[in-house]
Amino acid sequence: MHEYPITEQIIKICEEHCRKAEAEKVTKVNLVIGDYSGYVGDSVQMYFDIISQGTLCEGALVNIEHIKPKLRCTQCGELFYKKPLSFDCPHCGGQGEPTEIGKEFYIESIEVE
Amino acid sequence: MHDIRKIDVMEGVLDENDHIAEHVREHMTEHGVLVVNEMGAPGVGKTTTLKNIIQHLDVKPYVIEGDIESDIDTQALNSLGISTYQINTYGACHLDSPMIEHMTHHIAFKEPGILFIENIGNLVCPAEFSIGEHVMMLISTVTEGSDKPYKYPLAFEKADIIILNKVDLIPYLDFDEDFFMKGVRALNKDVPVFKVSGKTGEGFQEVAQWLQEKANALNSGE
Q: How many CB pairs under 8 A join A and B?
């Protein structure tokens, strides 16, 4: 549910960049969302279609690149995908630690016309 | 036919929230007030924890209570003589930095101390929004189960202090402390973990001392 105010923010940023480029409207928004960011892409899409009505983003496509979180093994340094209820490295059994991979939440680019 | 152009944006969606949070932190640092963002699921004893910590503090406590609705906790704390202010979010699942900025500009911080901000009872969303805290204090409990670090990793990763509450109930539960701590240490290898009981009051003096040292360090410019 917290995607609502966040989607308003996405539209605000896109409109700013659209105006700065002296374009008429935004046709596509390229978002990058890590699975650990806490934001659900489908919800962003749903709210976007509603909130963007009457804005420069109305009718724009939302393209979302999802990033799966990776941990780094403190023993062998390998980056790996976490298994449920475990932080252990699948290669050497060492303990994994969190990385920034999977926490992304940014607008990569927009397309305007 | 219009030309379609691609524009690089590379702007974080939370950048504005983080920017305002930084303002809040600076504002409170100038007042010598340590900001503690208290997080935890509903029913972990967030308000009880505040009452227990505050009675051991030698510095001035301030409290902002975040709730979806009602001011029950604020009334309870005010009746104990603790300066408490209420934010109701009416549905929103977390506090954000604009709400805290607005509130902190309306509170007279006449002396240095500690501002506790009790976030909405939720182990997910509050971890994602900085509100200008110096310290993220996570409350977990033995009744929630030992798998919480594995299920809600971000909250445990971001915590600066973890309080494990309701330890008086351990004899009646199957809480696996080793499994819990293994998860905590994987996510946050140096975070202090304090075992407390809101029922008996054990453990809170140590928590208060830890926070007080942080507040003193803030005021000595460290």
A: 90
Domains of chain B (ranges; CATH) run 16-216 (3.40.50.300)
pLDDT band, very low/low/confident/very high, at B125 (cuts 50, 70, 90): confident
Inter-residue contact B125 to B95 (CB < 8 Å)? no
pLDDT value at A8 more than 80: yes
**What's the complex ipTM?**
0.87
Q: Where are the beta strands (DSSP E) in chain B?
A: 5-12, 33-39, 60-67, 83-88, 113-118, 135-141, 161-165, 193-195
> What type of residue is B100?
I
Say how far apart CA A61 and CA B190 lie, in whole Å: 44
B187 contacts A87? CB cut-off 8 A: yes
Q: Which sequence spans correspond to the domains of chain A?
A: 3-67+101-112
Please say whether the beta carbons of A86 and A93 come within 8 A.
no
Contact assignment for A13 to B9 by CB distance below 8 Å: yes
**What six digits make up the tokens of A15?**
């409109």
The CATH number corresponding to A3-67+101-112 among 3.20.20.150, 3.20.20.70, 3.30.2320.50, 1.20.120.230 equals 3.30.2320.50
